[in-house]
Amino acid sequence: MNREQLPLLVTFFCISLLIAACGSQRPSDGPPQGGTNIPRGLPGNAIPKVEPRSRYGNGPIYQVRGETYQVLDSSRGYQERGVASWYGKKFHGRMTSNQEPYDMYGMTAAHKSLPLPTYVRVRNLQNNRSIVVRVNDRGPFTDNRLIDLSYTAALKLDLVGAGTGLVEVTAISVDEPLPNRASPTTAAATKSDVDLFVQVGAFGDQENARRRLRMLRSNGFKQSFVFTDRQSQATLYRVRIGPIADVAEFDKIIDRLRDAGIAETHLVSD
């Protein structure tokens, strides 16, 4: 090892330790006293603004519990669906990955790969509530989890009681024209009429899709099927499982797919 490499390795080691502490298990976490009713005086949505990339928590790579994660160069164009969780009073006042005190009453979130800070719109796919939060922390480092919301953010999406929910996360570019930015609402929850599926492959060759389908059914996925997508330039055959009802069913499907050797999955709608 030469002297030029040493500062880089020390920085990497320190960042890994810092993020590991932020992403530790939260066995006794919970809401503040008062339950799940929205108290008066809570903040509204985070307001996107231009901010410099944080000196802390941005890798570009870091390790937690033996797993290596890579921070994205940019949040532009990012959109993903998955499971949201939340964290509350146990971490209130502790330092986030970019060295800001965590405020469970703020509109913030933790994400494994988005640059710190990043503003994102989070939409609950099961009731269509939508909020804007500022990502300033790393996590969640639990299997099948996409984003960890502050207590207030989870409360506004109606996720506190259940603990988790199926969501869509979309990065907001502050230089976009206003009509294209997020227009969130936290109105009374209404059941979404959109069906959700786990997609386990998209193929240009129909026989490849049929081969994947046969493999799924031989592993007991009776709700698997091929959706023919003719909306793109070339017809795609998308292999899906579902519809799925909730996070518990989603987790069960993902675990079974991993056992079958399939790790690349996406949560999609009809």
Task: Summarize the entry for a quick read.
The chain has 270 residues and is of the alpha+beta class. 19% of the residues lie in helices and 28% in strands.
Detailed description of the structure:
Helices cover 19% and strands 28% of the residues. The protein contains 4 helices and 12 strands; from the N terminus they run H-E-E-E-E-E-E-E-H-E-E-H-E-E-H-E. The protein starts with a helix and ends with a strand. It has helices at residues 5-22, 151-156, 206-218, 247-259, and strands at 61-64, 67-70, 79-87, 108-111, 118-124, 130-137, 145-150, 165-171, 196-203, 224-229, 236-244, 266-269. The protein folds into 2 domains: 5-180, RlpA-like domain (Barwin-like endoglucanases), CATH 2.40.40; 196-269, 2-Layer Sandwich (Alpha-Beta Plaits). Strands 3-7-4-6-5-8 form a 6-stranded mixed barrel. With 270 residues, it is of the alpha+beta class.
